[in-house]
Design a protein that fits this description.
With 294 residues, the protein is an alpha/beta fold. It folds into two domains: 175 residues, NAD(P)-binding Rossmann-like Domain (Rossmann fold); 91 residues. The protein contains twelve helices and 13 strands. The protein has a seven-stranded parallel β-sheet, sandwiched between helices. Strands 6-13 form a two-stranded parallel ribbon. Helix 1 packs across helix 7 and helix 3 runs parallel beside helix 4.
């Protein structure tokens, strides 16, 4: 059955806005959870129909998903009880959409440090900040045995369009202080993906087999030092870094600093092979070095 209408959570966020645009670009009608007036306005401007509610409004989620052919869960509240709230929201969406595709957001950080280039079948060893995802994803995938259609997309570090974690923790501070934070020697590799490319993968995942998992990463593996150098050029402070020990980074950034220090090299070959995913942005360092539009 073709998917013609999709309900999205997190649609007004960084990845969400691009995903909504990608869905609409394929002629798919989009309804999306709006947790505020500002969110509703953003979604309306994009061309989606806002559905007022929060991630804890399980009846709203269930009802909205039941009126769609598929659902994409991008929203998350990084507060105490994140794991429980995410599981409850996922269950409500799965119950609502029935046998239609449900695409859940994971993340490649659950694999921890990798030994060379690995794929989705590699052992998982997450840092503390994402350890909660393991039980949640196991629970969601188990729903496939009950007739549900769960699919998990695991983005790498998302960059592009001046947003996301790169902006929040590196580029933004660099513009304020004139130096880019650098954790350790920066020799660790990041698994990255452009925001437009990961949005396309979310759309393609609506056609994936139940129980599938996909790493949403490009085939490049830049080092943190290379990323920091590129950000410095974009932010107008080339060559200027603020070295941080892992402990100093944790004090400033919180637990996510441990994830930024992971050494990860992953392949998105499965998504390309099974879904026909074709990332168009394959030179992260060049793109990150470009000055942001004023």
């Amino acid at each position: 059955m073709p998917v013609t209408k999709v309900f999205v959570t997190g649609g007004s966020g960084y990845v969400g806005r691009h995903t909504v645009a990608a869905l609409l670009g394929r002629g798919i009608t989009v309804t999306a959870l709006a947790r505020s007036d500002r969110s509703a306005e953003t979604l309306s401007r994009l061309g989606a129909e806002p559905v007022r509610g929060t991630l804890t409004d399980t009846e709203v989620l269930r009802e909205a998903a039941s009126r769609a052919d598929g659902a994409i869960h991008l929203g998350v509240d990084y507060l105490e009880g994140t794991a429980a709230a995410d599981r409850v929201a996922a269950d409500a969406l799965l119950d609502g959409v029935g046998g239609g595709p449900y695409v859940h957001t994971g993340g490649v950080w659950v694999y921890g440090d990798t030994d060379g280039v690995v794929d989705e079948d590699a052992p998982k060893n997450p840092p503390a900040v994402t350890a909660w995802r393991l039980a949640t994803e196991k629970h969601i995938l188990a729903r496939a045995a009950t007739g549900a259609h769960p699919v998990i997309v695991m983005p790498g570090v998302v960059y592009g369009d001046g947003g996301g974690l790169v902006e929040m923790y590196f580029a933004g501070p660099a513009r304020e202080t004139g130096a880019v934070p650098l954790i350790g020697d920066g020799g660790n590799h990041w698994a990255v993906v452009h925001v437009e490319d990961i949005a396309e993968l979310y759309v393609l995942a609506l056609d994936a087999a139940a129980g599938s998992q996909y790493a949403g990463v490009s085939e490049e593996h830049p080092t943190l030092a290379g990323i920091v150098e590129a950000i410095g050029r974009s932010a107008g402070c080339p060559g200027r870094t603020e070295p941080l020990t892992p402990a100093q980074a944790a004090d400033r950034m919180g637990p996510i600093a441990g994830a930024f220090a992971l050494d990860q090299r992953m392949t998105g070959a499965r998504a390309r092979r099974e879904l026909g995913w074709k990332p168009r942005h394959t030179d992260a360092l060049t793109e990150l070095a470009r000055p942001l539009p004023t």
